Amino acid sequence: MSLNRNVPNKGDSREATTSLMNRLESKIRHLPTSINEKVVNSFGAPPYLAHYLHFFDSELRQQQAFLRECLPLQKTYLQLHESLGEETFVGDWFEVSQDYIDRFAAITGDQQWIHTDPIRAKKESPFRATISQGFFTLALIPMLTNSVDPEASVYPEARMVVNYGLNKVHFPFPVKEGKRIRARTRVVKLTPLKRGLEIVREVTVEIENSTRLACVAEPVVRLYF
After folding, report:
1. Nearest to 221, CA basis, from 181, 173, 180, 164
2. What pLDDT is recorded for position 18?
3. CA distance 66 to 73
4. CA 120, 125, 131 angle in degrees (round to 5)?
5. pLDDT of 156-193, one tens digit each?
6. Closest CA to 138 of 216, 220, 222, 208
7. What pLDDT, in 10s, does the model give residues 63-106?
8. What ranges make up the beta strands (E) of 82-212?
9. Residues 6+ apart with CB under 8 A from 50
10. Cβ burial 135-151 (10 Å sphere, 16+ → b, else e)
């Protein structure tokens, strides 16, 4: 008599292990060093888990060491951390004129009549006026937040500032031609890197005399020292 047993083959086992390691990686990467050490030293920790914990633990130690040794980075980190989550900047008003809208349309090719034809927009658009392109509002964020002024760097201690991207961006309400907008910012996350610092800001672009926001975005920049 033979027994029918469901014995996984080696391929299935390797696939399951890889899947588990991928899930663990995102969780383990940001664990404090003390927790990593306890897990690694705990009884019965699987060898591959110990390897991954030591890898991320080593990376974290390097980041912490550089943060201690690099005084410009340390100064920047402490200043930003002190006001983490709080609004720290309110910009000046900027008028979104038809000329600016037209020039952005010419550069990007976005020539929709809702942006570039004031006469038709007045007759057919529900807004009764032309509106700015959402990406134009987004492109204005560096200027609206004073992030590109060469005479007044937002991060004067950093050797180099790199635009790393956006976590999210939404355009809740359009900006009509002739309206004024401005930006408000707050730092929502700080992550030490091997040789620098990653900063996530929440930027809200408001429209003058309106309760609706033109844009809500989370720009990510990386500072190198």
Report:
1. 164
2. 52
3. 8
4. 90
5. 999 999 999 999 999 999 999 999 999 999 999 999 88
6. 216
7. 666 667 788 998 999 999 999 999 999 999 999 999 999 999 99
8. 87-90, 94-95, 160-170, 180-192, 196-207
9. 40
10. ebbbebbbebbebeeee
Residue 220 near residue 167, CB atoms below 8 Å: yes
Predicted local distance difference test score (pLDDT) of residue 83: 95
What amino acid occupies position 96? V
- CATH number of 73-224, picked from 3.10.129.10, 3.40.50.300, 3.30.559.10, 3.20.20.70: 3.10.129.10
Every domain of the chain with CATH number 3.10.129.10 lies at 73-224
Q: For residue 186, what are the CA distances in angstroms to 67, 90, 199, 203? A: 22, 10, 10, 7
Beta bridge partners of residue 118, listed in sequence order: none
**Reduced DSSP (H G I as helix, E B as strand, rest coil) percent helix, strand, coil of the chain, to 5:** 40, 25, 35
Q: Give the pairing of strands 196-207 and 180-192.
A: antiparallel
The residue written with tokens 């664990």 in the block is: 31
Where does the pLDDT of residue 42 fall: very low under 50, low under 70, confident under 90, or very high at 90 and above? Answer: very low
